[in-house]
Design brief:
The complex is a heterodimer of chains A (113) and B (114).
Chain A lengths: L3 E4 L2 E4 L4 E8 L5 E7 L6 E7 L2 E5 L6 E7 L2 E7 L7 E8 L8 E2 L3 E5 L1
Parallel strand pairs in A: 2-11
Antiparallel strand pairs in A: 1-3, 3-8, 4-5, 4-9, 5-6, 7-8, 9-10, 9-11
Chain B lengths: L4 E3 L2 E5 L4 E6 L7 E7 L6 E7 L4 E4 L2 E6 L4 E6 L8 E9 L6 E4 L3 E6 L1
The chains are: A mainly beta (113), B mainly beta (114).
Chain lengths: 113, 114
């Protein structure tokens, strides 16, 4: 299985809502990533997990809270988001943080009203 | 840190013609250069990559060239087809204390006109 999956595909939420994005991979990868992507722009790194521990937080606001329950799962908890947070949220994984080949999930398209 | 520049930002070609996208990087320690294709509403997909010890790599209609001295690399698509229309991102991977860091170019929106 060489695939990263993400749920949900689409999400609409109000600024007072709490929601979560989910990412899963069964490739045995030990590095997992959250990216934010605006239309026709490159993905922007948000968080990096290495062996289930947060290794990089790219100064992301606290309204985004990542969680890595186990080596196959990565969550992104959302609370009190702003309209400017509307974007495509991509999960990615690599064998480990020294790996080269990065596999992206299909993304969750988030709209904050 | 690394800085990757990508040109052009938009490119339109007639079907059957060739398309070339160019990227430059700043960190001489960067050693791996993947190219991603992202169709509208879909995930970025790796289409070809090249390592710093190789000057050229080809896969059917797609080729990538690397000039380490000049710190630039290019994507070449020959005999373009409408399904090649997408946004293409180059990237440079640079080693760091926290592992290999990905630095993406700004993207090229390619349109192949039938």
């Amino acid at each position: 299985d060489t695939e990263v999956t993400q749920t949900p595909k689409h999400l609409v939420m109000g600024m007072t809502n709490k929601k979560s994005l989910k990412c899963e991979q069964h490739m045995g990868h030990r590095a997992m990533y959250w990216y934010k992507q605006k239309a026709k722009k490159p993905p922007e790194l948000m968080f990096v997990y290495s062996y289930e521990k947060l290794s990089i937080n790219e100064s992301v606001p606290s309204r985004f809270s990542p969680e890595c329950p186990n080596s196959s799962l990565l969550n992104l908890h959302l609370h009190a988001l702003q309209p400017e947070d509307s974007a495509l949220y991509l999960c990615a994984s690599r064998l480990d943080t020294n790996g080269e080949t990065q596999y992206f999930g299909p993304g969750t398209r988030l709209l904050v009203l | 840190g690394e800085n990757v520049e990508q040109h052009p930002s938009t490119l339109s070609v007639q079907e059957g013609d060739s398309a070339v996208i160019k990227c430059t990087y700043s960190d001489s320690a960067s050693n791996y250069f993947p190219w991603y294709k992202q169709e509208l509403g879909k995930r970025p997909q790796l289409i070809i990559d090249i390592r710093s010890n190789v000057g050229e790599k080809k896969d059917q209609r797609i080729a990538v060239t690397l000039n380490k001295t000049a710190k630039h690399f290019s994507l070449h698509i020959t005999e373009t087809q409408p399904e090649d229309s997408a946004v293409y991102f180059c990237a440079a991977i640079s080693p760091s204390d926290t592992g290999n860091q990905f630095y993406f170019g700004t993207g090229t929106s390619l349109t192949v006109i039938p």
